[in-house]
Amino acid sequence: MKTEFTPAQLADPDIVEADKILRKCVHCGFCTATCPTYVLLGDELDSPRGRIYLIKQMLEKNEPPTAEVVKHIDRCLSCLACMTTCPSGVNYMHLVDQARVRIEKEYVRPLPERLLRAVLAYVLPRPRVFRAGMVLARLGRPLAALLPGSKPGATTPTFLHRIKAMLALAPASLPAPGARAGSVFPAQGAKRGRVALLQGCAQQVLAPRINQAAISLLTRHGVEVVLVADEQCCGALTHHMGDDRDALARARANITTWIAEAERGGLDAIVVTASGCGTVIKDYGYLLREDRDYAGPAAKISGLTKDITEYVASLDLPPPRSRSDLVIAYHSACSLQHGQKITQLPKDLLSKNGFVVKDIPESHLCCGSAGTYNILQPDIANRLRDRKVANIASVKPDMIAAGNIGCMVQIAGGTSVPVVHTIELLDWATGGPRPGLN
Fold first, then answer.
1. What pLDDT score does 237 carry?
2. How far is the first Cα of the chain from the last one, in angstroms, to the nearest whole number?
């Protein structure tokens, strides 16, 4: 694609990067076949190719984003299926992230939307505040039925519809808190390694059992696990909302904390059980590439970061004593299969550890969770969830396994089939307890 940035614009490193990305796009259209919003809506501007054109125009003209541009960028899930499909290697992730930052800085949203986004950005990355918010949401959940849904023909959800979607996502009950930050779980038997386990934000409130399963499996196989004190949210939530000031501040704080821990006790890896977080942490090196103080440490942290399935695969687990006849539908989270290019490994681990693993039709399509997307774009999110659940039902599973808490919550909202994390099944197969749901 031809670009027309001025020399003055190309003095900005971000514009230089955008120019490189845009020039790789040949508008072949392969991405349209795997883009969830294009598949659902059939609008060229709701495809990666259409959004790339809108972003190009916005950046070249160096003008404030229009409402039309914001609408179509907001509808993007950042599922990154387009990057898996693209034959030209267009890094759509970095381009759309840059567009979101520009929108956040220069576009004035309606006041109710600004307030909602500000609440989400404040509450979700803070586990204690999020827990209190979930208690309040649970009390208000009966009111969700009284709130209006989407209006026929509306292109943007109303404020009340978004509140309705947020209340509907609140769980009926919350589990007890998991292990505290600063805890160290010693290896059992001969020590084979030492890792920092990302504690997460929403996950430690909604499903602390996930990290408990990871700790159980890792320590049982000779790995010491530390929950690093002073660790923060990875920054993914605010990063995808365009608030890079907050996201990069959190990234820097985590880098400082993890580097100090690595120097103090040594770390073989930073292990992540929420793939949405893992994708962003693995990108810290890129996000802070222009920061003289943090570029090197950020790259080091990105290199240390492993999804839990990547790290478990390196342990070479012994074969299970018996095989299970449980049929597991494996949902490949977008952040795992498209963001981190981890596709077959989790399924292989489940199969080797005794489970009957079934592929889900249209496995490349997003479930509609996508961070805060199922709150900010509930109509599209619900349609994608229902499509995902129907595809899962076609394989008649006993359980559904996924590697990301957002996907787990989203899918569980549309099915009665138990939804568990991959690591819970692997822990069970290697001597841990059968997965529970609270």
1. 94
2. 51
